[in-house]
Amino acid sequence: MLVTRCSRCGKPARASLATPDAIRCDACGYSGPPADDAKPILRAARDHLIAQDARARQVSASRQEALTRGGAKLFAAIFFVASLPCDAVFFGAIRRSFASSGPHPSAAAVVMACFTFALLWAIGGFGYAAIKRAQKQLRAACAAVPPARVGDPAMCRVCGGDLAAGGAFVRCGFCGTDNFADARVIATLEKRETDDASDYALSLSREVTSTREIASGAAKLAPIVAVVVPIGCLILLSAITPLLERIERPLDDSVRYAIAMTRDGECIGHPIAGDDGDYEFEFGVRTEFPGKMGKSSPPTFSAATLVGKEMRAFLDGATPEFVGTVERVYGSPVGNLAILKNGADSVRVDVRALCVKTGKVDLLLKDVPTFTIRGDDMFWPNSGTVDRSKLEETKVDTLTEVDGIVTAIGSSDDAVFYSTGRDLFSAPIRGGNATRVARLDEKEWVLDLAASARGNVVCGTSSPFEAIVFFSGEKQPIRVPFSYLSLVTARGDDIFVAGADHDGNGVFRIERDGKVVRVASGLCHAIAADDAALYCGLDRSIERTDLASGETRTIFELPTPWPESKNETIAALAIDDDDVFFSFDGKVALVSKRGGIAHVVMDDLAELGPELFVTSKSIFLDIHPDRKFGGGEVVSFPKTVSR
Fold first, then answer.
1. Are 498 and 535 in contact (CB under 8 A)?
2. Count of beta carbons in the 10 Å neighbourhood of residue 202
3. If we measure between CA atoms, which residue out of 419, 426, 425, 427 comes closest to residue 444?
4. pLDDT, tens digit, for every residue of 15-35?
C-alpha cells in the first residue's frame, strides 16, 4: 500500500498514483491535496511507474487458474495417479510376504514395504503442503489492497488506484497490474506492508520479483514431486532389497513349497487354500501362472530338499536366465532364498523363482512322416520300405518293401498295417511278404489308421469323411459316415472313433455287427482307452468316461489364467497302468487316472505331432521343428518326472 504524510495530522495517509493530487487519511478523515513537498514525489513515482513494462506486473492465465481453482488439488490428483504403480508394488510385496510365509510372515519385508510406502506418501504430503504454502504466498503477493470502509472499492496493490468490480483477478485501469481481488481471500490475508512514496522504485522492483519467484516455484514443484518421488521410492526399494537378501538367517522350515505346472514347466511355488477350497500358487516374480489348481492338496516340502538339485532360475518371469545346482538355501529378512551355482557363476534367488530342469531328449529318427510302437518294436516308413528296430537298440531291419509313400501306419500283435493313400496293406511282424487288405474308392484317401491287438483295423478317410472298419475274419468292411478327427483301438475287438454324427461331436464304439454306440460327447482332439475307461483330450481339459457306467468326469484342466491359443490344445494322449500322458504347448505331462495335480515330464519341445507312445521306461513322440509336412522327428526321453 502506497502512503504519504497527511497534510492535516501528519500521520500516514493512502495515496494513489492514478490521482497524485489527492490523498485520503484514515486517521483523521482528511481528503484533499497532499502536502506541498509530497506532490513532486508522487508525480515522480507516477512517471516511474508509467515507464515500466506493465506485463511484468501481470499474472498469466495458467497461474491465475492455479490460484483460483486450487493448484494443490491438481497436484494431489497427479500424485495419486503417478503413485498407483508404486502402491501396487508395495501392497503386492506385503501380500506375497504373508502368502509365501504362512503363519510366519517376513517382518523385515513387511516393514520395508510399509516404510517405503509411508515415505512415498509423506513426501507427497510435503509436496501438497508446499504448494498450498506457495499458493498462499502468491495470493498474498498479488492481493489487492482491501478497502478502508465497507462499500468502497479495493485498491491496486501497486499504484493504489480504485479497482473496478470483477472476478477473482482484476487488472488496474491505470497501471495494468493484475490484482487478486477475491474478497473472501484478501479479507483473511495479513495486513499488507506499507511503502513510502519516496522508496517507491525499490518497492515496485521487490513486488515484481516476489510475484515471479513464487509463481514459478509453485508451477515447477507439482510435476517434480508427483513424478520423481514415486520413481525415487522404487529405486530406494530396489536398492535396499539386495542388501537384505545378503543377511543370512536359519532357514524357515515352516514355509512349505509345492511343484506345479506353469508355462515355464514345473516350477516351485507356495500353495494357498482359498475360501472356496481351491488351491492357488504364489510364484514370486511369476504370479500369473498357474492360478487355481483345483481342490486337490498338493504334496509339500521344505526348501532344504532342493539342495543338490539341478534347477532353472527365472529372474525376470519370462526367460530362464540361469541353470545350475542348488548349492544351499537359507532364510533372510525377505524370505527363503537359494544359491544356484554353475561352475564359477552363481545367482541368489527367491526359492519361488526356481523351476525344475527337465531331462535330455534323444533324437531317434529324422524326416519320418509317422511311426507306431508295439511291444519292444518301433515301425516306421522309410524310402521304399517299412523298417523295424528294437527300442533299446540301434540296429534297423527292413520289415517289407513298399511301392509308394506311406501316409499312415499302425500295428497289432501279429502284423503291421500301413496305407499308401488308397491301398491298405498288412505285413507280418515275424517276417514275410506284405498283402493288400483293401483298395479304397477313387475319391477316398486314408488320413489315419489304427489296429487293435487282435488285428481289427479302422481307417479314417478324407472324401467322403467316414470310418472304414476291417474286422478280422470278415470279408466286407463296415463303412460309418463321420466327420473324422482321430482314432484309437482298445479291449481286443473294440474300435473307438472320435468324430461327429447328426447329434454332434463325440467318441463312438463301432461293434462287429456295424452298430455305432456313442460313448462320450465333446470335440476330442485325442483319445486313448484301457479296459475300464476312455480318455478324451479336449481343447483345455481331459475327460474320463467309465465304459461300464458311462459316467464322465474331468481329471485335468489347464490352469487359469492360461491364455488360450491353438498350440495349447491337448495334442495327443497315451496311458499306462496308472497315469494319462498328454502333450500340449511344447510339453509332455502326466496326470493320475484318478485326476489331480499334473506334472511336466518334458518341456521346451518343438511343434508337437499327433503320435505319443508310452512304454515301461520311456516316452516316444513326433515333433516338427521346421513344421515340414511329412518330415517330423521321432524323439524319446525317460518317463519319470524329473525332480
1. no
2. 11
3. 419
4. 888 888 888 887 787 888 888
Residue 186 C-alpha cell reads as: 484478501
Range with the largest mean pLDDT of 120-129, 286-295, 332-341: 332-341
Cβ burial, residue 604 (10 Å; 0-12/13-18/19+): exposed
C-beta separation of 168 from 180 below 8 A: yes
Of 508 and 270, the structure prediction assigns the larger pLDDT to: 508
Whether 262 contacts 286, CB under 8 Å: yes
- Per-residue pLDDT at 552: 94
Question: CA nearest 511: which of 449, 550, 469?
Answer: 469
Beta strand 377-382 with 385-390 is antiparallel
Among 28, 14, 39, 286, which Cα is nearest to 155's? 14
**Residue 528 buriedness (CB in 10 A; 0-12 / 13-18 / 19+):** buried
* Rounded to 5°, angle at Cα 590 from 492 and 276: 120
Q: Quick count: other Cβ atoms within 10 Å of Cβ 187?
A: 9
Which residues, 6+ apart, have CB-to-CB distance to 69 below 8 Å? none
d(CA 310, CA 342): 10
Count of Cβ atoms closer than 10 Å to residue 547 Cβ: 19
Instruction: Tally Cβ neighbours within 10 Å of residue 435.
Output: 12
Higher pLDDT: 589 or 254? It is 589
Task: pLDDT band for 197, please (50, 70, 90 cuts).
Answer: very low
Residue 249 has phi, psi (to 5 degrees) of -130, 170
CA distance 492 to 363: 32
Q: Is the pLDDT of residue 192 over 70?
A: no
Mean pLDDT of the chain: 78
Q: Bridge partners of 573? A: 582
- At what angle are helices 200-223 and 61-69 packed, to 10 degrees? 70
Name the 3-class secondary structure at 208.
Answer: helix
Most confident of 194-208, 263-277, 532-546: 532-546
* pLDDT above 60: residue 579: yes
Total-model pTM: 0.63
> 340: closest CA among 352, 332, 328, 355?
328
Amino acid occupying residue 545: T
- Side chain identity at residue 76, one-letter code: A
Using CA atoms, how far residue 544 sits from 376, 451, 519, 532, 556, in Å, is: 28, 22, 11, 10, 9
**Is the pLDDT at 211 greater than 60, yes or no?**
no
Whole-angstrom distance, CA of residue 573 vs CA of residue 593:
12
Cell digits of residue 484:
473324422
Distance CA 301, CA 591 (A): 20
Mean pLDDT on 528-544: 90
User: Cα angle at 365 between 363 and 368, to 5 degrees?
Assistant: 135
**Residue 26 to residue 6: CA distance in whole angstroms:** 10
Does residue 628 surpass a pLDDT of 70?
no
Return phi, psi of residue 27, to 5°.
Answer: -80, -50
